[in-house]
Amino acid sequence: MASALDIRGIRKSFGKGERQVEVLKRIDIDVKPGEFLILVGPSGCGKSTLLNLIAGLDDPTEGAIRIGDRDVVGVPPAQRDIAMVFQSYALYPTMSVAENIGFAMEIRKVPKAERTKRIAEVAAMLQISHLLDRRPSQLSGGQRQRVAMGRALARQPELFLFDEPLSNLDAKLRVEMRAEIKRLHQISGITSVYVTHDQIEAMTLGSRIAVMKDGLVQQLGTPDEIYNRPANTYVATFIGSPT
Ligand code: ADP
Ligand code: MG
């Protein structure tokens, strides 16, 4: 099967000369269509750096990234068919929920009737149909997070990127939104790459998991493989110990 996302021999350094630090040392990851791939590892191991390279927010020092059958290194983010959800989701404060969800489609000149239909579909999926006329300031944290996801989903991207989207939420809401993200992935089938430092989140959401440490993938496998056949002591310890 062709890959939805293929990351080959990626290296990334920051700084110059003596100050140069190699943050990603050699990353190879192949993501199949419809997969939910988790990048998990401790803070500072290079997860966000890798996600930003996939999004096109930065360029690798070395290596290739393909999305579908397209080589995307050097292609600006707006020309990659991706949507990103971060932990700090900035909704447009003066727009209603419906307008927030529809904005990207409006920019792309999607006809109004089609936009309205798509907004209604996405709102139904996220169970926020009753909130469409509200402003972001009239929503709870969890509702705002749903709108942020709705905005990303409405674009029907080829690839969904998440960078610790739940880490600002309280524990109860985090569990609820985790289930929500899982359900949305099952419905939409959109290939996803999800960054977290939370082992439980990784094990419950991932179809495959890349365990990272110091800019390297220590193991890439299904939750079952990672749990039952850890590749080394690091993986065994990391997966076995809640942060
Ligand atoms: P994670 O998301 O896993 O917590 P990051 O990818 O954000 O880690 O960061 C990995 C390392 O790269 C950290 O040591 C961080 O300080 C460094 N780093 C990230 N971005 C930059 C940058 N723009 N310039 C210099 N160093 C950076
Ligand atoms: Mg990060």
Automatic annotation (TrEMBL):
One of its GO terms (molecular function) is ABC-type transporter activity. It comes from the Bacteria. Residues 5-239 form the ABC transporter domain. Keywords: ATP-binding, Cell membrane, Membrane, Nucleotide-binding, Transport. GO terms for cellular component: ATP-binding cassette (ABC) transporter complex, substrate-binding subunit-containing. One of its GO terms (biological process) is carbohydrate transport. The keyword Protein transport does not apply. This is ABC transporter-like protein. The chain holds residues 1 to 243 of 355 of the full protein.
